[in-house]
Amino acid sequence: MSSPARVSPPPRAARPRGRRGPRRSWRVAFAVLALAAVVGGAAWALLGSRLLAVRSVVITGTHLVPNAEVLEVAGVRLGTPLIRLNTSQIAARVSAIAQVQSVHVTKSWPDRVIIAVRERTPSLAVTAAGGGFDLVDPDGVTVLWAAHRPSRLPLYLTTAPVASLRGDPDVAAAAAVLGELPAQVRRSVASITASTPDQVTLQLSSGVTILWGGVGDASEKAKELAVLMPTHARYYDVSAPGTAMTN
After folding, report:
1. Between 203 and 20, the higher pLDDT residue
2. Of 3, 71, 81, 145, which has the fewest Cβ atoms less than 10 A away?
């Protein structure tokens, strides 16, 4: 007896591929439109909206320069979109103020600009042509004018006009030497001269003269000076450690 023949079910009719086309196109179009809306919204928020615009400018580090002057020179307008601000240009404008040594400008999202100022610190006093004293920093830049010389600032003796002291290596050497002196000697310095950066001379308030020389070897010079000063000489030369002299 023969086995019954197997009858296979008829194959399922394949769905026409064309039916998915319109649905996929609609999804792609929707995704493109959604992305465009997001990008457009972000661009509007950054460039045109007042949501991310400057509402306040914070200034730090100022003691000599009025904040109003920094604000005017910085030129940051309230309401300007934060993304449009060029922090380098703002810093360059503020750096043009004589009393400013350096500036760091940052954007604090969503609506604030911070201008951090580092002011110059006077190290020496120079007799001003019109009277009083110009107080200069180690770069020779006039930071302030004073009617009387501050006791903490030695008088820098020079025949050059104060305007020519900017970038003068002699001024830089004099200021650097003051910074490396022992505290007791530093407080006694009344005036200082520098014929060259390696020939810095100190005049103490007691009338004692010290040829300190250039910057460097400060600890050796200080030790030799401490040994020699009990001799109560009027002149000490410690410019070359190991060969100190008195007179």
Report:
1. 203
2. 3
Q: What is the pTM assigned to this prediction?
A: 0.75
Both tokens assigned to 196:
């060259």
The DSSP bridge pattern shows strands 189-194 and 155-156 to be parallel
pLDDT at 42: 47
| pLDDT tens figures, 27-58 | 665 555 555 444 444 444 444 556 789 999 99
pLDDT at position 247: 86
The closest of 214, 236, 240, 215 to 226, measured between CA atoms, is 236
Sign of CA dihedral 160, 165, 168, 172: positive
* Average of per-residue pLDDT across 86-109: 97
> Nearest to residue 196, comparing CAs of 241, 239, 136, 234?
239
Take residue 65 and report the two structure tokens written for it.
């320069």
By CB atoms closer than 10 A (0-12, 13-18, 19+), residue 184 is exposed
Assign residue 22 a region (left: φ > 0; alpha: ψ between -120 and 50; beta: otherwise): alpha
For the cut 60, the answer to whether the pLDDT of residue 140 exceeds it is: yes
Nearest C-alpha neighbor of 172 from the set 204, 124, 239: 124
- Backbone φ/ψ region at 214: left (φ over 0), alpha (ψ -120 to 50), beta: beta
Question: Cis omega (within 30 of 0) on the bond before 110?
Answer: yes
